[in-house]
What does this fold into?
Amino acid sequence: MNDIPNELKIAGIIILCFIFIVLMITTMWKRVSQDKALVVTGLKKRVITGGGGFVVPLLERSDKISLENMKIEVKTDGARTEQGVDIRADGVAVIKVKSDKESILSAIEQFNTGRENQTIEIIKDTAKDVLEGKLREIISKMTVEEIYKDREIFASEVQDVAAVGLANMGLELKAFTIRDISDKNG
It folds into this structure.
């Protein structure tokens, strides 16, 4: 057993240490694409976007959240105008998680499920509820004529009001468009 020269023993130990270090680095290094954010909590709370960083197993946890645009269909049936007329308004909103650190942390705190796709669905559902509520709120403050003639003003008012509520959740309203406005009489 002592037939193995010391130089070979030392070389073997060095190779094993090198392999161990490479394995440790590859398991601790987490990469994230440009359209996602990785939130690391544990030893130090930090956000990684469009790059990579070390995550210490057992001491830190990492969760991904999408920074991509999300399209939401917004519909209201029976929203009453200032004159008491029931109106149906259909629109489309484009939202996303804001790219700054505070917004990402806020969004992950409020919406994280541990599964990226499920988190996206919760964000969409919550944003849809907020947008529909704000749409009803603006409809109730306008007349039928104002809504029908000035669709752009109507849409921009909804966008301004909804943007504040969504920003508190770490979300950004990129666009809001009214597709159709009608009443029971067409």
User: Anything to note?
Assistant: The longest helix spans residues 116-140. The beta strands are 29-41, 46-54, 61-66, 70-80, 86-97, 171-182.
